[in-house]
Amino acid sequence: MFRFARYNEPLIFELPSRETRERTPIPGIPRKIQRLKPISIPNIEEPRVARHFHHLSQMNYGVDTGIYPLGSCTMKYNPKICEEIARWEEFSCLHPHQDASTVQGILQMMYELEEMLVEITGMHAFTLQPAAGAHGELLGMLLTRAYHENNSDNNRKDVIIPDTAHGTNPASASIAGFNVIEIPSNKDGTVDVKLLKKSLSDKTACFMITNPNTLGIFEDNILEIAECVHDAGALLYYDGANMNAILGKARPGDMGFDIVHLNLHKTFSTPHGGGGPGSGPIGVNRELEEFLPIPRIIKEKNRYRFDYDKPKSIGKIKEFYGNISVLLKAYTYIKMMGYNGLRETSEIAVLNANYMKKKIVDSKRYELPYKQMRKHEFVLSCEKLKEEKNIRAADIAKRLLDYGLHAPTVYFPLIVKEALMIEPTETESKEDLDRYIDALIEIADEDVEKLKNAPYNTPIGRVDEVYATRNLILTWRDFKEEMSEK
Questions:
Q1: Per residue in 30-57, pLDDT tens?
Q2: Same domain, yes or no, for 168 and 217?
Q3: What is the pTM of this model?
Q4: b/e for 41-75, b at 16 or more Cβ within 10 A?
Q5: Which range marks the domain in which residue 375 is found?
Q6: Residue 299 and which of 18, 34, 340, 368 are 20 to 30 A apart at CA?
């Protein structure tokens, strides 16, 4: 069984500093700008510094460490060639204030990336400005508002969202000034079309969904949904978080969507999370193109330039033109994969998810609510384990850490009780999938008390989450004080 490296050495700030004496003032330099007292950082040998950070790195877990099956997140391996190209000085040393004539290569890359995303999604035009998926959602809602205001249809203040929606959907709609109306799913875990029709009115601005939804189920009534939404005068918004399931197989534009956001840090294999830059490009149909943020990238013969002459544009959504390094990585990834490669990506992602689902469900330890056939992800329920053995989804997730495996998303979507949401992605081998399946089955059969106190092999064991919420430890000093009190 894999065990995390334990880090038992003192924190670097707890190590003694050899430099404790005050310094003598330096003649000729104003005293007020001189540091006469030792700086409050350790003064230790280079090997100790190197070991400190190396030990910290051993405590981390990422896509380079092992399987990362966070449902709804598409945490797949990021090819290193994409990282290398993004670091080339021809790209990394550019400055956004340079004249367009000196950055023709970057402009060409962005222009071609927009064109590729147009083809992949079936939309008419794209902007690369949004810095993340939720940022793209906000832009989509602002475009929705601009569209209706341009039509003097200012009464449309409602955005309808299914109960399988991502958590950022209602937040984005609300921030943009809309009222959010949630509708429950039907017995199959898909949109209840009859209820949707009853909810639509002359106040409806937009219906936001993802397809497949967060249960991993494809909305097979999507054409009917699009028709009734448009008949009501509203727009149809596609949350692209689950686009990894349909690359080369289906396109949101062909389904009738008016606005699409993509997560380049999900579907197109750029780094995901960790506080780094993301990217959430927005695609629109022909009627909405005039409202896209400025500047737009224009190609004239063999030259590229920025076009600010868009009187109906909502303006900028981000300073400059987007997170260039992320765009470069996605551009490289798409160029390497090509149409057939992207199509195979979805085929393997769906195959991997259904393989795992089948093996786990056949074990009889976990339940699978709603439809059996899933796309790139599936949501298990630990409700039976809770009733029979008092084992919760959180217990399963924490015990997985002892096996050296990252836990799946838990307790989401909310319509599944004690949910484990698993998305293996296409980059994991059958051996890795089997290892995860075996771990889930073994854990379900373990002693209850063993699970209740897991994890054991991690640097920090089971956390008292209630106490932690009420007594926040935000710095190493807080941690030190907490330990001294105990």
A1: 888 887 777 766 777 888 888 888 888 8
A2: yes
A3: 0.89
A4: ebeeeeeeeeebeeeeeeeeebbeebbbbbbbbbb
A5: 346-470
A6: 340
